[in-house]
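User: I'm putting together notes for a lab meeting next week and I want to include a structural view of one of the chains we've been expressing. I don't have a solved structure, so I'd like a prediction I can at least talk through. The sequence is below, exactly as it appears in our construct file.
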Amino acid sequence: MATTPGDRDPRPAASAAGPVTVLTCANCGARNTIRPSPRGAPHCGTCGKPLTWVVNADQATFEVETRAAPTVLVDLWAPWCGPCRFVGPILEELAAESAGRLKVVKVNVDDNQPLAIRFEAMSIPTIVVMRDGKVVDRIVGALPKAALAARLAPHMKS
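Assistant: Thanks for the context. Below is the predicted structure for the 158-residue chain, given as structure tokens.
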């Protein structure tokens, strides 16, 4: 089951703890409230299965969202970009298939130009693969699912 990027909880989040995201379990449908964590990956509080970890980030939340134990894939995209709309669902499928080992952080470059500049996103989609806070790969342009999975495979933690 494809998921949409985690919904932000309307309640104010404690800045030290990071933003609150609600992730829906693909296994049982339970809604799980989580915060970013540099250790581990989120699991469903009801059935215990790993959750598909797809979140939206902005300039204020980017650093805390990308500090995560699993491999982090930063999707630099824009709503008007056709190739971005092609790649988005593929990234969500890959996140679901690699639940617990992959976190997708979506960044709208129109709303977050400093992040686009930081990652030199001159063309979109630009996908930045990070492990342990360091960039390990960069993919510019839309690729089919099999090609994206092959590029990600060497960077995935077991």
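A couple of points you could mention at the meeting. The longest helix spans residues 82-97. Residues 76 and 83 are 12 Å apart (CA to CA).

User: Perfect, that's what I needed.
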